[in-house]
C-alpha cells in the first residue's frame, strides 16, 4: 500500500509501556496535545495500538515471542508436515507452484514435547505467569494476577500459537477491553495475495485486534503464510474452507483425515485460533428446515451438507478430543463456530440456534479438560430486544467462556448499511459481556469488502467496542472522550482531529465548510458561524461562575434551586436572581 | 435537483390507502416483487411514504388540508402581520428584497376565531375525530380511537399548523411508529434558498418524517416560505435563531416583544412546531460552569447569555402562558428545548440537565391547560448505560408527553462518524419509548451537512427507528425484514435491492463484485462464489425436511433431541440418526 496511506498522523507517535524487570515493551500510540487557551498544558494521551512495528510485506515481522517460547523448555522443532501443492488449490498443482510463493524465511515448526501442553491456560492453571500475560497486563493497565486468573478460569484467552512468534499478545475476555476482529481473505471470484496482506496491515492500522483469513479461493496456504508472517495480531481461520477446496468443493467428500491434515498444516503455519463447527449435530439440521433463511453459516452448511449426505454424526464432534490434543501441542484456541446462527431476525433465538449452543457449552468444558483455550461464537441477526438473552445464556451455559459475536444485525432491511445495523446490536451485546466483536462491513450480504470497506468496518466496530467499554465503566476508558470533549470546548480543532478515531476524515469534513487554515484555531464552529457561538457563551459562563468564590455561590444556588423545586417549582422567586449576580 | 436523483426505483410505485367514507387517501410506496423460484407469487409490499406527491419548487404543493380546516368553521382569514424586510436580515434590507423572493401564491394567514382553540388536542379532548386523525390512523394501520385518545391524553401529537395545509398528517407518540427528523437550514457561512428546498425534498425522499429549518443566515423568512410551501411533512423551527438575527446577533438585546413578533411571523407562515428554550432558568445556568463542555445548545446558550446579561429570569419562561395562547390559535406544537443538554458523555445526566427537565415537565402541563400539543426534547451525548434513564425519567415527569431526542451519541471519540455513534444511542432510547429521533449526520461537530450527509443521516436514523419498532414489537414492523430475508434466501437479488432502504447503493455494492447482469439472478452469492453456496445447501435441507411428512419427522426429532439433552447431551445416541434419515 502507498506509504502516505500508512503514514501516521503528525500528532501521533510510537511510544512504549515498559516492564524493565521482565524486559517487556508494549507499543502504544502517543497523541500530542496543544495547550489550552489559558496556557494550561495538556499532557499527551497514550492509546492502545494494534498496528505493531510495521513490516515489509515480502520480509515479514521479527519473531517477537520466539525467545519466550523457547525459554519455557517445553517445545521442540520438527520436520513438520510434507508440503503438498494441493494446499494451494488445483490451479497451483497445474502451475507447479502458488501464484506468489512466500520468499521470506519459513520458520521450522515447533510443537510441544511429548506429553507436554503448551497453552497459556495450562501455564495459568499451574500458577505460572508467562511473558505473554505480563505483556497483556501492561497493555490493559491491569494486575497480571487478574490476567492469569481469568485465563486459568477459562473466562479469557490469549491466542498465541507457538508458531506465530511475530504476534503481540492480546487478551479476549469480559474483564478486559472489548476487542474487534476484521475478516479478510480471497474467494473464488476475486483478489490477490498482495491485496490480502495490504488489507491485514490496513485493518490493524485502524484498530483490528485480531484478523481472520477466510480465503476460499486459490493459493490459500501461501496467502496465509504471507499474512501470518506479517501479522502483529492473532490470526484466525476456518480450516473447513481449505479442506473443502482439497475435495474440489464437494462437502460429501470431506473426511476426518483430510480435515485433520489441514488443521496440522495450519497449526504449523502459526494460526492462533480456528473456527470449528463441531456443534452442528445431525439431529439439529432438521430444526432449520422451517426457517426463513435456513443455515447461512458457510461452515455450518458444509457440515450440515456432510451430515445429510452420510447420515452420520458431524466428524468434528465425534473427533473433538483428537482436535483438543492437537491444539494443546501448539496453543491454538478454539473458536467454537455457531453454524446454526440465525441469518434473519425472523430466525433469532430459535430451537436450532439454542440447541447448538447447548452443544458448544459441552465442547467448551471438554476442551478445558485438555487446557485448550476456548471462545464461543454467536450470532448473527437478532432484533434489539432479544440481543441480551444471547450473551446471558451463553455466559451461563459456557461458565463464562469468552463470547465472540458477529454483530448482531438488528434489522434486515438495510443492505449497504449493515456495518451500522450490526454496530447497534454489537454495542448492546458487548455491554453485557461479549468479549470480541467480529466486524461487519458495508458490503455484508452484497460482496467482498475493499480497503475502504475494511476501514469503515473497523472504525464502526471500534465505536461499538468503545461505547461498550464506557457502558461497562472500564477504568480509563473515558479518558479519550474527555480529552476530545475538552479540546472541542476549547476550540482546539487540531486536537479534536488527532484524538478522533479517524483524524484525516474529521479534518477533511471540517475543511469542506471552513477550508481556511486559520479556521482550525478560530474560536467558533461552522455550525454557528463567527457571529454567534454557543461554546463561547459557555466560556463566558465559566468565567463568571467558574472561580472558587463562584463555586460557593453555586453551592448556595443549588440549595435555592432545591427549595424552589420543593416549593412546587412554579412561583418565581426574585431572590434567586441576587444569588445569581456576581456583584 | 436532477430528476434522475429524485426518480423512483423501478420496482417502487405510488399507491394509496383509502377511506372512501371520509374521502381520505394516504400515499404509500408499493414495492413489486418477483415470484419465488418455485413459482409461488410474492404479493407487493406497501411501505410508509414521506415524500408526498412531489412538487415544482417554485410553485409549491397543493393545499391538501385547507378544506378540512375550513369545514371546522372555527378559523378566520386576516391581514396578518406587516412584512418587514429585516425578517430576511440586514443584507435584504440593503438590497430592498430577499435574494430569491417566493414567487408562488402567498396564502392569506388563518387564525382561530376569537375565543376558539384549533388544536388537534382540543378536538381530541372534545371527542371530535378530525380528518387529520383519520389520515393518521390509516397511515399507521391502527384504530382511529387510539389516535384520538393518545392525542387527548397528550401522549401523542399531530403537528399541523392551520397555515401549512400542504402537509400530510403524521403522529408522534410512543404508541406509534418511531419517527425521525432531519435538520436543514443555512448559516452565516454557507448555502442558498434553492439548496435548502433541494435538501428538504431529498430528506423526505429518503424518509424524514419532519424537517427542521435551522437557518441562521440571510433570507431566513423567504427560505422558510419556500420550504413550507413545498413541504409534505411538518416543519419545525427554533424562532430564537431568527429573533437573534433581528438584534444583530447580540443575545443581550433580545426582548419578549421581538421574540413574540417573530413567533407570530412564523405561525402565519405555517411552521408546525417550534423549539422553545423556556426551561433554561437563570438559577440553572451556574450548574453548567463546572461541565467539561458547558452549554452546547445554541438556543440554550442564547437564553443563558440573555439571563446573565440582565440577571433576570428567561423571558420565554415568564411569558410562557402568552406563547400558549398564540400557539392555540394556529395549532403550533411546542418542542420544549433542552437548552442544558450535555455536550459530552462526561456531562451526561447531571444536575443542570435534570433541573431543566423538571421545568420542562412543569411547562408541559401548563401548555396542556391551553390544549396546546407538546413534545419534550432530550439529549445529546450519553454513555450507553445511562441512556435508558433519560426516557424513563422524562416519561414519568412529563406524564407520557412525547420525547424527541438528538441521538444520543454514546461516545465522543468519533467525529466524522457521529451518525453511527448516535444511532446506537437512538435505538436504545427509542426502544424504551422515545417517539421521534433527530438525525445526526457525519458532519456533526465538524460542518454543515451536504446532500450526501443528509441522505446518510436519514437512512441511518430510519435504521435506528425501525430497529426500535421491531424491538417494541410494533404490529407489522417485521414484514419488510421478512420479505427481504425471504428474497435473500431465494436469491431474488433484485427484490433484495428494491426492499432495502437504499436500493441503488445495495445494487451498486453488489455489482462491484459481480457486475454481470445474470449474477443478479444467479443462485449463489459473491461471498461464497459459484462453486459452493451455504444458502443452496440450506435449500437442499428444506427440500429434504420441508415437506409435510418431514415436519412430522422433525416433531419426532425435537422429542429425541429433548431426550438427548435430558440424558446429559454427552452420549452419542445412534437411533437419532435413523430418525434423521429420510428413508
From TrEMBL, chains A, B:
GO biological process terms on file: thiamine biosynthetic process; thiamine diphosphate biosynthetic process
Cofactor binding annotation: Binds 1 [4Fe-4S] cluster per subunit. The cluster is coordinated with 3 cysteines and an exchangeable S-adenosyl-L-methionine.
Gene Ontology MF term list: 4 iron, 4 sulfur cluster binding; phosphomethylpyrimidine synthase activity; zinc ion binding
GO cellular component, one term: cytosol
Amino-acid positions noted as binding [4Fe-4S] cluster in the UniProt annotation, renumbered to this chain: 525, 528, 533
Keywords recorded for this protein, A-Z: 4Fe-4S, Iron, Iron-sulfur, Lyase, Metal-binding, S-adenosyl-L-methionine, Thiamine biosynthesis, Zinc
Residue sites binding substrate per the record: 183, 212, 241, 277, 297-299, 338-341, 377, 404
Entry cofactors: [4Fe-4S] cluster
Record's keyword annotation contains 4Fe-4S: yes
Gene3D superfamilies: 6.10.250.620, Radical SAM ThiC family, central domain
Pathway: Cofactor biosynthesis; thiamine diphosphate biosynthesis
InterPro entries noted in UniProt: ThiC (IPR037509), ThiC-associated_dom (IPR025747), ThiC/Bza_core_dom (IPR038521), ThiC/BzaA/B (IPR002817)
Domain ThiC-associated: start-end pairs: 10-76
Binding site for Zn(2+): 381, 445
EC number: 4.1.99.17
Catalytic activity: 5-amino-1-(5-phospho-beta-D-ribosyl)imidazole + S-adenosyl-L-methionine = 4-amino-2-methyl-5-(phosphooxymethyl)pyrimidine + CO + 5'-deoxyadenosine + formate + L-methionine + 3 H(+)
UniProt record similarity statement: Belongs to the ThiC family.
General function of this protein: Catalyzes the synthesis of the hydroxymethylpyrimidine phosphate (HMP-P) moiety of thiamine from aminoimidazole ribotide (AIR) in a radical S-adenosyl-L-methionine (SAM)-dependent reaction.
Identification of the protein by name: Phosphomethylpyrimidine synthase
Source species taxonomy: Bacteria, Bacillati, Actinomycetota, Actinomycetes, Micrococcales
Amino acid at each position: 500500500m502507498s506509504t502516505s496511506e500508512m503514514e501516521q498522523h503528525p500528532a501521533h507517535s510510537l511510544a512504549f509501556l515498559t516492564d524493565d524487570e521482565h524486559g517487556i515493551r508494549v507499543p502504544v500510540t502517543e497523541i500530542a496535545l496543544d495547550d489550552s487557551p489559558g496556557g494550561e498544558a495538556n499532557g499527551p494521551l497514550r492509546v492502545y495500538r494494534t498496528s505493531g512495528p510495521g513490516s515489509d510485506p515480502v520480509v515479514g515481522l521479527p519473531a517477537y515471542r520466539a525467545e519466550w517460547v523457547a525459554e519455557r523448555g517445553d517445545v521442540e522443532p520438527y520436520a513438520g508436515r510434507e508440503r503438498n501443492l494441493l494446499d494451494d488449490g488445483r490451479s497451483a498443482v497445474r502451475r507447479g507452484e502458488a501464484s506468489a510463493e512466500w520468499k521470506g524465511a519459513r520458520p521450522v515448526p515447533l510443537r510441544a514435547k511429548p506429553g507436554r501442553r503448551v497453552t497459556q491456560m495450562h501455564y495459568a492453571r499451574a500458577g505460572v505467569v508467562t511473558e505473554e500475560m505480563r505483556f497483556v497486563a501492561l497493555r490493559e493497565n491491569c494486575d497480571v494476577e487478574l490476567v492469569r486468573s481469568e485465563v486459568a478460569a477459562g473466562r479469557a484467552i490469549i491466542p498465541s500459537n507457538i508458531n506465530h512468534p511475530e504476534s503481540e499478545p492480546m487478551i479476549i475476555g469480559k474483564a478486559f477491553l472489548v476487542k474487534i476482529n476484521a475478516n479478510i481473505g480471497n474467494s473464488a471470484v476475486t483478489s490477490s495475495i498482495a491485496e490480502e496482506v495490504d488489507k491485514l496491515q490496513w485493518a490493524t492500522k485502524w484498530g483490528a485486534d485480531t484478523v481472520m483469513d477466510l480465503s476460499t479461493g486459490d493459493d490459500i496456504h501461501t496467502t496465509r503464510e504471507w499474512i501470518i508472517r506479517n501479522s502483529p495480531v492473532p490470526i484466525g481461520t476456518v480450516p473447513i474452507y481449505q479442506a473443502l477446496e482439497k475435495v474440489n468443493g464437494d462437502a460429501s467428500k470431506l473426511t476426518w483425515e483430510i480435515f485433520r491434515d489441514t488443521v496440522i498444516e495450519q497449526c504449523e503455519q502459526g494460526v492462533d485460533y480456528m473456527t470449528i463447527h463441531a456443534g452442528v449435530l445431525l439431529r439439529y439440521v432438521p430444526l432449520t428446515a422451517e426457517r426463513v433463511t435456513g443455515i447461512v453459516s458457510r461452515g455450518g452448511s458444509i457440515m450440515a451438507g456432510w451430515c445429510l449426505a452420510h447420515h452420520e454424526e458431524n466428524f468434528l464432534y465425534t473427533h473433538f478430543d483428537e482436535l483438543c490434543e492437537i491444539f494443546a501441542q501448539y496453543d491454538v484456541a478454539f473458536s467454537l463456530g455457531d453454524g446454526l446462527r440465525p441469518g434473519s431476525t425472523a430466525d433469532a433465538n430459535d430451537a436450532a440456534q439454542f440447541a447448538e449452543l447447548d452443544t458448544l457449552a459441552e465442547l467448551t468444558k471438554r476442551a478445558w479438560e485438555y487446557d485448550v483455550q476456548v471462545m464461543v461464537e454467536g450470532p448473527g441477526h437478532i432484533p434489539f430486544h432479544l440481543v441480551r438473552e444471547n450473551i446471558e445464556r451463553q455466559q451461563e451455559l459456557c461458565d463464562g467462556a469468552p463470547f465472540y459475536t458477529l454483530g448482531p444485525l438488528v434489522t434486515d432491511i438495510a443492505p449497504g448499511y449493515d456495518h451500522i445495523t450490526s454496530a447497534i446490536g454489537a454495542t448492546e451485546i458487548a455491554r453485557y459481556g461479549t468479549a470480541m466483536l467480529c466486524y461487519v462491513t458495508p458490503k455484508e450480504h452484497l460482496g467482498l469488502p475493499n480497503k475502504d470497506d475494511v476501514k469503515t468496518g473497523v472504525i464502526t466496530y471500534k465505536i461499538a467496542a468503545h461505547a461498550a467499554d464506557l457502558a461497562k465503566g472500564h477504568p480509563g476508558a473515558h479518558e479519550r472522550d474527555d480529552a476530545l470533549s475538552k479540546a472541542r470546548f476549547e476550540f482546539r480543532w487540531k486536537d479534536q482531529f488527532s484524538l478522533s478515531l479517524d483524524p484525516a476524515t474529521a479534518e477533511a469534513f471540517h475543511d469542506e465548510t471552513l477550508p481556511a487554515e486559520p479556521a482550525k484555531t478560530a474560536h467558533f464552529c461552522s455550525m454557528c458561524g463567527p457571529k454567534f457561538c454557543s461554546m463561547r457563551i459557555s466560556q463566558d459562563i465559566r468565567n463568571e461562575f467558574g472561580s472558587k468564590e463562584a463555586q460557593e455561590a453555586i453551592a448556595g444556588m443549588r440549595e435555592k434551586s432545591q427549595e424552589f423545586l420543593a416549593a412546587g417549582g412554579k412561583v418565581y422567586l426574585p431572590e434567586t436572581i441576587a444569588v445569581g449576580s456576581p456583584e
